[in-house]
Amino acid sequence: MDTNNFTEQFYEKYGNRNSRPVLFFSPGRVNLIGEHTDYNAGYVFPCALNYGTYLLVRKIDEKLLRFSTVNFNDDAVTPLNGLFTNTGKKWINYPLGVINEFQKKDVKITGLEMLYYGDVPNGAGLSSSASIEMVTAVALNDFFNAGFGTLDLVKMSQKAENEFVGMNCGIMDQFAVGFGKKDNAIFLNCDTLSYENVPIILNDNILIITNTNKRRGLTDSKYNERRSECERAVELLQPYKAIKNLSELGTNEIAILDKYISDQVVRRRAKHVISENGRVLEAIDVLKKNNITRFGELMNQSHDSLKNDYEVTGLELDTLVYEGRKLPGVIGTRMTGAGFGGCTISIVKKSESAKFMTELAISYNNITGLKPEFYMPEISDGAHRIES
Ligand code: GLA
Predict the structure, then answer these.
(1) Gap from CA of 336 to ligand 1 centroid (Å)
(2) Ligand 1 atom nearest residue 36's Cα
(3) Which of 6, 22, 57, 58 is deepest in the core (most CB within 10 A)?
């Protein structure tokens, strides 16, 4: 990221070189294990990336907000008079939703000029949206001395996404983006929101993210369908136990699902959630013992469960994963995020990583006709101000 060039773009867009904008950064995230568990009050294990969203912002005297992005041609100017309404399918809804949350909490927002730049691919399941929300939240908190803690900002960003943007996501993405810590992943209990930073020490292995480059069309409706299936499972299990969430059941209780849930689909959804929580707990345990081989096996099992029981994978993700597993040096590989498209996350031996990328690109292209993209991320800190 060339910050001088970015600042220059800001001045070209908005003029007035006498008033310097302030730079903020918010990461994207990748989830290492614990998928579709957050909205079931379960465990997740994501980490923040060195890819994310940069925001340059400064105050102006006019009573309006100016939005612009380097990524595409889609500027907006919004007058500041009360709460905003959704402007249709536009990226500006992410910051607008967050600004609304500040206004609802009686923070007086005055005029701003904002320029965004994102280097996390959009719609690839690496939380570009949570990244835009959190960079806005951190900047507003700073500029208007609102005094919110990171958890408040995380919750406000999730609310913006749920209520303003209309995507009924859990808390994992905003939490990872807000609380990220360099070289650590976050072991989060989504019920209590207590968390622990766990160092990611991979010895002679690296993390590789592979983008299917498949457009994720039906993700939102399928996502909501999965949420309702989990709610249905909780209802059906009431005669067994008065649970509020599937994550209240342990892996030793999976067998009882057969007795209480006759709908095979709903039963498999519940099985995924409960078994995935078990995998996260074991994954943390083995990681702390530096057993990367077992961690990789658990990643593999997680993908298999997401494919067979939760059914959120599809040809592209499965091809990357199952073709990937045939290659030497692959310790573990699975889809990450909501699924249906987006990315996989793999742990690969450093010495085999170049071969992994070359060979996987060929077999993936042969099978799907698509070209994958590879990223070798660093694990970074959560959303923050970069300079004054
Ligand atoms: C999306 C949602 C998250 C989480 C994942 C699946 O990324 O935004 O809240 O539910 O899917 O684990």
Answers:
(1) 9
(2) 12
(3) 57
Cβ atoms of 121 and 373 closer than 8 Å:
yes
Residue identified by tokens 């067994």 is 240
pLDDT for position 90: 84
Instruction: Locate 357 and state its tokens.
Output: 């990328």
Task: Give, to the nearest 10 degrees, the angle between helix 150-159 and helix 172-179.
Answer: 150
Name the residue with the closest Cα to ligand 1, atom 2.
Answer: 169
Q: What is the Cβ-side half-sphere exposure of residue 89, based on CA atoms within 13 angstroms?
A: 0
Q: Phi/psi at 30 (nearest 5 deg)?
A: -130, 140
Q: Which pLDDT score is estimated for 99?
A: 98
Query: What is the Cα–Cα distance from 237 to 74, expressed in whole angstroms?
Result: 48
C-alpha gyration radius of the chain: 21
Sort strands 43-44 and 184-189 into parallel, antiparallel or unpaired.
antiparallel
* Number of other CB atoms surrounding residue 203 within 10 Å: 10
Q: Give backbone dihedrals phi and psi of 68, rounded to 5 degrees, phi first.
A: -150, 160
pLDDT score at 123: 80
pLDDT of residue 279: 98
Residues of the chain with pLDDT under 70: 216-218, 388
pLDDT at 388: 60
Which residue has the least CA distance to atom 9 on ligand 1? 170
The residues annotated as belonging to the active site are: 173
Burial class from Cβ neighbours inside 10 Å (0-12, 13-18, 19+) for residue 74 reads exposed
Tokens 């993209």 found at: 373
Instruction: Give the length of the chain.
Output: 388
**Structural domains in the chain, sorted by start:** 3-30+49-183+380-387 (3.30.230.10)
Q: Answer yes or no: pTM beyond 0.90.
A: yes
Strand partners, 186: 197
Give the ligand 1 atom nearest the CA of 167.
8
CB 272 within 8 A of CB 310: yes
Contact by Cβ (8 Å): 175, 130:
no
Query: Ligand 1 centre and the CA of 170: distance in Å?
Result: 6
CA of 124 to the centre of ligand 1 (A): 12
Which residues form ligand 1's pocket by a CB distance below 6 Å?
A: 35-36, 38-39, 169-170, 172-173, 337-338
